Amino acid sequence: MTISPFARWLLSHYDWRTAQLAIAVLAWVLLIPTALLVRRAPPAADSGPGPMAASGGNAMTVGQALRSPQFLVLSATFFACCAMHSGPIFHTISYAIACGLAPSVAVTIYSVEGLAGLVGRLIFGLAGDRFGPKRALVTGLLIQAVAAGAYFFTRQVGEFYAVAVMFGMTYAGVMPLYAVIARGYFPMHIMGTVFGAATLVSSLGMALGPAMGGWVFDHFGSYGWLYIGSFAVGLGAGAIGLFLPRLPSRPRSIAQSA
Length: 258
What we know:
- By secondary structure, this protein is mostly helical.
- It has 12 helices and no strands.
- It has helices at residues 3-13, 16-35, 43-47, 51-54, 62-67, 69-98, 103-131, 133-150, 157-185, 191-220, 224-241, 252-257.
- The chain is globular.
- The two termini are 36 Å apart.
């Protein structure tokens, strides 16, 4: 919401090198002191009886987890999800400028996506609690795919804002659900390693989307096929998500004590 307009202001007054350096210094000044405020979780939270502990899965090793169907399907869904939304995230500002929007206006599209993402995290978090994280994730992935494809038809600033609301709400809203689902599959004592591995796979998708978007523009002279491809990959992510195994349920006594 804030850094995109700030970056645009820097670029209008300075060069790329100065703009990047200013943002880097700002990240150090803000993020590192803030990170020191993060508190260690209390021991009771680490040793509490999670779903896997209740079902006897607490003895699972990292190797077993990384070879499990749960991890493979979760990682594949995560990869396809990030491959789908990373292209539009990185290229939509350039696409909006190509459609005739001023650069100072085009960057606000990303700001709108960020603002919508704040709401999306709450909506999909509540939906995951009420209807289950798998159902909320698959629904969000399908809506996200439609939103990415809708950019193909946008030309005016109002249209960009409307699509940005739906796109930002869903791509930000589904991201926390992956951690919720992973926590249901794997015990806490290996959660950092397992979810880190899943995030590594998703990062490959994040790297693929922008590269493919650039390739599409260089070969076709427009971003049309980027959004069509993102729509198709998004549908694929939703389809893969349907194969996520059912989350283990906790015994009633454990659920009540938690």
